[in-house]
Amino acid sequence: MLLFYSILGLITSLFLNGYLNEFFRRRRLFDPVNTRSSHKNRATRSGGAAIFLTLCFCYGIGRAFLDLDINLFSLIACCFVAIIGFFDDLFEIYYVEKFALQVFAGIILIQSDVYINNFHGVLGIYEISELNSYIISLFVFLVITNSLNLIDGIDGLAGLISLKFFIVISVIIYFTDPDSYSFQVSKQSMLAYSLTLIGALLAFLIFNFRSDKKVFLGDFGSLLIGSVITYFIFSALHSENQLITDNWINRSLICVLLLIYPLTDTLRVYLLRAKSGNSPFLPDRRHLHHKLIDKGYSHVKASILISLLSISVLVFGFGVSFFIWEIGLSSILFEGVNLITTISIILIYMIFLYYKFFESKVSK
Hints:
Elements: H1 2-26, E1 43-44, H2 47-65, H3 72-91, H4 95-110, H5 130-150, H6 157-175, H7 187-208, E2 214-215, H8 218-237, H9 251-258, H10 260-275, H11 288-294, H12 299-327, H13 329-332, H14 337-358
Parallel strand pairs: 1-2
Helix pairs in contact: 1-2, 1-7, 2-7, 2-8, 3-4, 3-8, 4-5, 5-8, 5-10, 6-7, 6-8, 6-12, 12-14
């Protein structure tokens, strides 16, 4: 039955991406080409609308026939973020106004009672106060939604990174005990949403990689998917839920590893902009994917390479964590050394990948 959602999402998204692309083209609503653009051919920012309508349609079917449930506040927040992205695609909202609207959407999402209320041992911290939970959750919401928006600069990258997230989180949720993962929204419903998005993203990528009648996510799509991802992260980190991976890897760490590329790229770009005296919110071509494009990689090769590298970091981090937890360094030295050692080894591996693939002088 769960496979039904992926198939329904795929078919619906294929139809809507084709239909909306033609709808936008007839009205000459093309993505503008400027000095920062990585594309030269005409494309429409209709991918986000197609994914949003796919989610709405699949939810309607699931709600009517399969008892699919949803958290009302999370729905309102995601719809509000999607509307922000929709108007930004059409009218290019000033970043201060967009940021303020995102803060409002984040506050709405927190009203769902699904937020980060536990650090699960990071920095030796577990349960945190309600006020700190709200502040940290709002900050994480802004970081994730905007980081996914920032990496949407070349064909396929945001779609592949998001696809990787929903595939992995679907596997984790699927093997988790339904009694351990049912806070606010049931395990079956969370799986249904993630599988629907897997199908919707696969269909979008087909159009995104095309040379003719190309489709982009736009801010509509990247902000929408970012907000949905944030809700899944909040659900995974909430103390009322448990994951099957809890015995092998720190829950906060695996959430970071799932989004390792957008988070590290956003941090790097913001630091570089601040160092040069520029506003961190003003766009430029300092992203890691732009480095690959400038070195001669095609969009497809750059997106696939980055996706494979992010998967390798996830697998490597999981393997290192599992090994270190098995030998029990904490019992030998002091509490928390497992996590510190794991993070240190992962950082060394990421630095190696950076200099190997992004700083190498060999052009592809």
